[in-house]
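QA checklist item 7 of 12: single-chain prediction sanity check.
[x] sequence parsed
[x] length recorded as 312
[x] structure emitted
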Amino acid sequence: MKTFPMSPRLAGADPATLRGWVAAGREGLCRMLRAVLRALDGGLNASHPPVASATCDQTQPVPGGLISLVGAGPGAADLLTLRALRCLQRADVIFYDRLVDPEVLAHARPGAERIYVGKAVGACDWPQERIDAVIVAAALQGKRVVRLKSGDPGIFGRATEELAAARRHGIPTEIVPGVTAASAAGAALGRALTERGETDRLVLATGTCRPGDDAPDWGAMLMPGTTLALYMGVSQAARIEANLLAAGVPDRASVEIVSHASGADQRIVTCCLGTLARTVRRQGVENPAIIVIRRPKGELSCSALHPLRRVG
């Protein structure tokens, strides 16, 4: 390894002088990086005011507050990430969803305020606009706000609306990923969601859109070699079945439904695509549930993978 002689000026400096030089160099580098970020923000995101970056790991108060969108995982409290745990332990106020396990909230800082903002499909006691308003109001009071969502906040968690509300007020934000329900469903089934040579594509899609929106074209998503994981699709089982069959997906395609994945009341129901709606109705399957539909390259039928079963 090549070495270089130390500058005589550097070699003769006392420790205090060296520390001063290091601090000055660090501050100069920070100024340069801030200038670069300002330029990038002005060129790429001119429609929004610059928003400071911050995380729940910071020990000093954040001027203007902080909003952390935190994933609580699919159900089991021990699937919470370490970063999510740190955010809960430093939060001033936590706005949590309907599906968040009470054991997760038990990890919050004792003095943290806990506010329920849950909503179910078809019920709007807490419409999104109201949630946006209360988390922004709390952050503008200088509080560390945790918006605690089941699963991963970036996957069907309405994170976009809440990030936009924060940006309009210049509030720093962060996203803390969580284990999404599809991953927990795969674990519950005891197999991978992608399998080399069989399913080399994984699609996560919603089974329920907001009122007035067209339903997704699930048939276009489920090409051979695909595993399709549908969130919030139980109430749309008949529509999903009809759409997939009309797209040419075999009626013997394998379907596995995992409700309350990773939770104490986890339940697994399996069937073929052609009996999806009937199975959901007869078995009384309810949300939260993930519908996993496999369409391998070889178009194997569900009977080749498993017998019809009900677990739980």
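[x] summary fact logged: The first strand starts at residue 66 and ends at 71.
[ ] second reviewer sign-off
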